[in-house]
Prior knowledge:
Layout: E1 39-43, E2 49-50, E3 57-61, E4 67-73, E5 85-92, E6 102-110, E7 127-135, E8 139-147, E9 152-160, E10 167-173, E11 187-197, H1 199-202, E12 211-212, E13 234-244, H2 260-268, E14 271-274, E15 285-288, E16 293-299, E17 309-312, E18 319-323, E19 328-331, E20 335-336, E21 346-352, E22 361-366, E23 373-376
Antiparallel strand pairs: 1-4, 2-3, 3-6, 4-5, 5-13, 6-11, 7-10, 7-13, 8-9, 8-11, 9-12, 14-23, 15-16, 15-22, 16-21, 17-23, 18-19, 18-22, 20-21
Amino acid sequence: xxxxxxxxxxxxxxxxxxxxxxxxxxxxxxxxxxQRATSVTTVxxxxxxxxxxxxxxxxxxxxxxxxxxxxxxxxxxxGQGFAKSTKFDVTTADTSLGSTHQIYWRQGFEGQNLQMLxxxxxxxxxxxxxxxxxxxKTGTYIVYILDGxxxxxxxxxxxxxxxxxxxxxxxxxxxxTTGALDNDNAKSLxxxxxxxxxxxxxxGTLQQTWAAVSGNNPNRLTGQVNLLDSTSNEWYVTGxxxxxxxxxxxxxxxxxxxxxxxxxSKCQRYYQKxxxxxxxxxxxxxxxxxxxxxxxxxxxxxxxRAQPSLDAVSVTNGYYTYGSNNAYQNFNVPSISSNYSIGTxxxxxxxxxxTYTAGDSRIAQTDNAxxxxxxxxxx
Length: 379
């Protein structure tokens, strides 16, 4: 298939080619939004999940003693318009990864947002990844796409050639005519940056065409360096894009910069943090359902992907309600009500404890600097 050459050159104000018809797949590819934290230590060695910049998840399989600090950083490629990157800093080395181990950083996507790929049809589209990357650890790295709906994957390699130098990579993945993606709000495809791999995943020949997931797939991560082999190692990335179609370094669309507010809103479909710190209101409404039960209505600034769970830190007497009757009532942490059913725009929370006057309208606030609440609807 011929490369897309974007003949109508010009760029829009957002940096899209003027003939671009598809919204970019990656969210927060410029690493600008970090609601959870800007730096997290001791990541790895069993500590995985969504840690720092929004929509990006650290994950591992197998067991390792190696650990990272992950940071939203200001080291970025010069003159490209980026203000933030994500930095992986090895703080505890593991020079010999176990055979079943793989370490990766990934972003998943809803199937309903991927139907333009036409996957599983004779008209299936190719996908092109592009990103800026930097590391003192030169050598071969792997990126791969996993189709969770059909248990299929495809891998590609890139090379970091120069130590401590920002390099732009453009990598095209083939179309897949097998396995349509579900048209729903669940996770269909996941894009992975690999940082280390054991022999169970890397002892074969790299699988550069779509194939079925089978066991550990020794062809999945062949050639991958072990970033964890020294505490001197660092790895940075920013400007991550996934585009529909095949592009090379001369034709790939420029990064689709957008306002921080728009980027944050897209991230908040999956995670919304609010009421962080002392004296912060955390409900748009609070009322005593009974003499021992108080309900809260948590606001959603953006409609969420699905009914969320509550992410909150528990602090002794860290939260309180106040009303005209039975004034201050402190408690450790609220919860999502078991019968919440008002959907993804308003969420009902509750606390069972204290003494109230039934029907009393109350305010609800944090009472400790360590407190925060967040709604979590991540894939």
